[in-house]
Amino acid sequence: MNLTNTFFSHFDSLTDPREDSYKVLHKFHDILVIAILGTICGADGWTEICEFAEAKLDWLKTFLKLPNGIPSHDTFGRVFSLLDSETFEACFLAWIKSLSIDVKNEIISIDGKSLRGSHDKKKNVKMLHIVSAWASNNRILLGQVKTEEKSNEITAIPELLDMIDVKGSIITIDAMGCQQEIAKKIVEKEADYVLSLKNNQPSLHQDVASIFEQAEQCQYKKMIHKQKLEKVHCHGRIETRRYTLIAPRDQQLFGVRWPHLNRLGMVEVKRTVNNEVEHIKRFFLTSLDDGYTLSLMSDLPEGMVPEEGKMYVEQVGEQLRYVVQAPNGDKIDSFLDIKTKNFSTKTLRELKLKILAETGKRGHTARDQDINKFMESIRKHWNIEINLHWSLDVSFKEDLSRVRIGHAAENLGIIRRVALNLLKQEKTSKVGITARRKRAGWDNKYLLKVLMADSHFKKSED
């Protein structure tokens, strides 16, 4: 088997961490390849990786040197405990960055996970905590940062955002990441955010809850808002979810405290299980908007059709003239009965919501872009729990692992995530991750498919 054209090439820069490596019996490259292949094929921990290699010895000899046979499980443990985890992590990120992953309109969920078996009370070693970024539509881990405690997620998230490309995407984070500096970082990276708001910020949570409480009492009259209802039947339960977005009348005041804050969100869940009814309300801050930019008519070249998502406006007597490309692609040149004094870019910004509400009623602009994205973001945020954290715990038994010496816990965590990324991208098999790992161990041809599973992301050389 030829490993030249696989992801392994991005790990070639790693060097043997053992002192006097020229005296060692087993080559570092062989140890690295066997560890990753064994993990893909269902081996959990150094002992099982060693057993995998012994069973596959004749096959491994066809592409590895193995001058002294298979290393012992102690050798695997020692090498990965010495290997610098930051360097290993950098190789993982170099592999991901080499791929052509389209993140425009992607839902990128950021969340932390503890490796529960990585602590050692006797040596005062704390549990390892990893903050990860998961691309829901592409089903791939984009990057991760380690922290010593869950509370350190607040400082780890900006660091993670600097490591990955998020331009044009929607970032979803739970309540721990609902911070002004994190919102500012996301906006700087040219992405949108949907941040969960809970009682870890009691004043802000109470303010937002009060706004929605008052809105419900007046049935949202004279409030700029959108609502959608969704019913879900699964696993013996019935859920009714009502999504609500409230937009401000004064956009500038709304965004003073939180960078680019455009909407307040609420999700009301009515869940029925075994004839018992449960009601839940969750609140969110989001930069999502209708997706349109408004400009003065003078900025539109004569005879040109506006680009999708752009509208040009001017005051004509008692009316407001607007030119826009409709959702069906037609050029719309029409008027609204909206009059304003001192018409300018500033007043246009203030009138934006009203203009889009009126043009939306006529079908000239897409009315539900913001709430549709909000709904999708809320639903897909949990993909990081199901497709990443759950898979690591159930399929790879990560929480049961007691590997904890030196850098070994984090390095084995990186190996698991390399394996999971590849197994998620292998599309010919429709079974779960556990079954795919077993099949890769049984079938060398299928294992090769897994190793090449990232090929559809590879950038063209043209």
Explain what the structure shows.
- By secondary structure, this protein is an alpha+beta fold.
- The protein folds into three domains: 7-83 and 426-457, no CATH class; 106-288 and 368-403, Alpha-Beta Complex (Transposase Inhibitor Protein From Tn5, Chain A, domain 1), CATH 3.90.350; 293-366, no CATH class.
- 36% of the residues lie in helices and 22% in strands.
- The chain has 15 helices and 13 strands.
- It has helices spanning 28-40, 46-55, 57-60, 73-82, 85-97, 153-163, 180-188, 202-217, 251-254, 345-361, 369-381, 383-394, 408-425, 433-442, 444-451, and strands spanning 107-115, 128-135, 140-147, 170-173, 192-197, 224-234, 237-247, 263-273, 276-286, 293-296, 310-316, 319-325, 331-336.
- It has a nine-stranded mixed sheet with strand order 3-2-1-4-5-9-8-7-6, with helices on both faces.
- Strand 2 (128-135) and strand 3 (140-147) form a beta hairpin.
- Helix 2 crosses helix 4.
- It starts with 27 loop residues before the first helix and ends in an 11-residue tail after the last helix.
Q: Which SSEs are present, and which pair or pack?
A:
Blueprint (H helix, E strand, L loop, with lengths): L27 H13 L5 H10 L1 H4 L12 H10 L2 H13 L9 E9 L12 E8 L4 E8 L5 H11 L6 E4 L6 H9 L3 E6 L4 H16 L6 E11 L2 E11 L3 H4 L8 E11 L2 E11 L6 E4 L13 E7 L2 E7 L5 E6 L8 H17 L7 H13 L1 H12 L13 H18 L7 H10 L1 H8 L11
Parallel strand pairs: 1-4, 4-5, 10-11
Antiparallel strand pairs: 1-2, 2-3, 5-9, 6-7, 7-8, 8-9, 11-12, 12-13
Kindly report the name of the CATH homologous superfamily of the largest domain. Transposase Inhibitor Protein From Tn5, Chain A, domain 1
How many β-strands, per DSSP? 13
**Mean pLDDT rating:** 89
Briefly note the CATH topology name of the largest domain.
Transposase Inhibitor Protein From Tn5, Chain A, domain 1
How widely separated are the two ends? Answer: 27 Å
Number of domains: 3
**So what's the overall shape?**
elongated
Query: Helices and strands, in N-to-C order?
Result: HHHHHEEEHEHEHEEHEEEEEEHHHHHH
